[in-house]
Structure formats: C-alpha cells, structure tokens
Amino acid sequence: MDSCRLSFFVIFFILVFVNAARSKNVPFDLNYKVTWGNDHVSILNQASEVQLSMDVQSGAGFGSKLSYGSGFFSMKIKIPNKDSAGVVTAFYLTSNGNNHDELDFEFLGNNEGKPITLQTNVFVNGEGNREQRIHLWFDPTADFHTYKILWNQYQIVFYVDNIPIRVFKNNTNIGVKYPTQSMQVEASLWDGDSWATDGGQTKTDWSNAPFRAHFQGFNIDGCSLLSQSSNNAGNCYGSNYWWNESNYWKLDNNQEKEYEKVREKYMNYDYCDDRDKHPNISPECKYSRL
Ligand SMILES: *[C@@H]1O[C@H](CO)[C@@H](O)[C@H](O)[C@H]1NC(C)=O
Ligand SMILES: *[C@@H]1O[C@H](CO)[C@@H](O)[C@H](O)[C@H]1NC(C)=O
Questions:
Q1: The CATH number fitting domain 25-287, selected from 3.40.50.300, 2.60.120.10, 3.40.1440.10, 2.60.120.200
Q2: Which residues are catalytic (predicted)?
Q3: By Cβ atoms counted within 10 A, which residue in 91, 172, 231, 289 is the most buried?
Q4: Rounded to an integer, what distance in angstroms lies between the CA atom of residue 155 and that of residue 136?
C-alpha cells in the first residue's frame, strides 16, 4: 500500500472512530444486563438493539449494571404494534429495597386503532400515586422515539423527543419530598392487564402474542456510585457533571412553552386534579406548575 493510500485509511478510521464516540453507540452489555425473562430477550445488530418479547409464559426486562445518583438517562423505544391492550412497556429508574424512589415511563397498550397512553409516575420514599397520563402526538409503535429522564439536584424532567412532558421540582424547602436514593436504569415488557387498559377492564388478547418492544441507545450519562464513597445521591451533584450545569436547573422559555402546550393538548390525567383519589392536594401540586 502506498503512503497516500495508507494515510487515507488512517484518516478514514479516525473519522469512523470519532463519529462512533460522538454518537455514543455503545453495545448493550457495556452498561446493561438482562434481569428476567432471558429466553424472551434478543440482542440484535451488534448489540445496538434489544428486543423484549412477551407471551403467556413470560415478559422480560433488563437493567443497568450500576446505580446512579444523578444523570440524564435516555432510551430509544419502539413499543409493540398490533392489538396490545394490557401490555405495558416500561423505562424507568428505581432504587432497591423498601421505601424506594422510582421515576417511571409506562406505555399502556391498547386495542388496535385506539391511542396508547404514556403514563409517568414519581415515587419518593415508597410513596407513588403521582400518575400523569398523556396521549402522544405520534404513533409510538411505528418508529423509535427518544424518552429521557433528567435528574439533578434542582429538578426531574421527563422528555419525549426533547419536549418536556413532566417537571418535578426539588421543593424540599417547602416540604415536598424529592428522591435521594441511588437508582438503576430499567426497561421491561410485562402483562399489566389488571390495571393498564380501561382501568383493567380490557384484557390482554394472547392470540396476538408474542408482543415485541425494541430498545436502542445503551449509553448512560449518569453519575455512577461505583466511585462514590457513600451510597447517597448527594455526591452526584457536583459541577463536574454536565447535567448539573445551570441550563439544566430549570426549563428555558422555549421549553416552558412546549411543556404548557403538552399539558393543554395531550394530558388527559393529572393526579394533581384528581380530588376523588387525592382529597387533599399534594404539596408538590401547588408548586410544580410554572
Ligand atoms: C434539594 O434542594 C435543596 C436546596 O433547596 C438542597 O439542599 C438539597 O440537597 C436538594 N435535595 C436533593 C435530594 O437533591
Ligand atoms: C452544580 O454545578 C454548578 C456549576 O455548574 C455549581 O455552581 C453547583 O455548586 C453544583 N452543585 C453542587 C451541589 O456541587
């Protein structure tokens, strides 16, 4: 090979490498492992994609190898198509043990042609019941979309394709509980037909099984507790983490507008407005709105 050709190849491979690093296309096994339903998990395309499937025997799930104390967690997801009533696809953060903290995205499947609901929830110290539900402005079964959870000392924000759909602020100074425990990143596909669709009245139709959900994007931007001395999230709020920089402390004007639009046009349930289930308005509800 002459030197001109050689340098061409060197440059070519450097470009490929830099691009791969930038797109953070890391293989599944680097950060994640299968947690249940092994034989219902397929790792595809050089471990850049995972398929979970569910039939009457089992669903499946995977989770991060490490726990995190802050971060900007992201997953590309394409949820089961066809008739998927009762089928729940989840992407969430959760701590271990009793009185756990948890931040959830849950897609509630539906009969063919009916809209799929995206439910979010926030558990603090074992206490959940903070459901919000939206219908999406696209068909989440047709393509991959990006679902993200920002978690720093100031706020927790759920995003769909970079549009904020939920904000949970750190208002501990006025008595609102805020997650403090380290959490793992999890994803799963499971049978939720006791509650998920029409309040549990529409059941999973197993003649449509197997149901399949697809996941991509296994890079994790998080503060892992491996290198931290204590198991408390507090050490993960340092300025060395980019998701703790001031532009992540609150939504900017543009994001606020997008968020308000989602609430107006797409939100169809907010626990803050449910006086039957929550006769006393939860403290965060008084302040979480902008
Ligand atoms: C919440 O914010 C307060 C400051 O208002 C801070 O002292 C505290 O560490 C934060 N809590 C968490 C869990 O991030
Ligand atoms: C988070 O980062 C900012 C700078 O980006 C810094 O001012 C702030 O003190 C940091 N928070 C903590 C708890 O270290």
A1: 2.60.120.200
A2: 102 (nucleophile), 106 (proton donor), 106 (nucleophile)
A3: 91
A4: 23
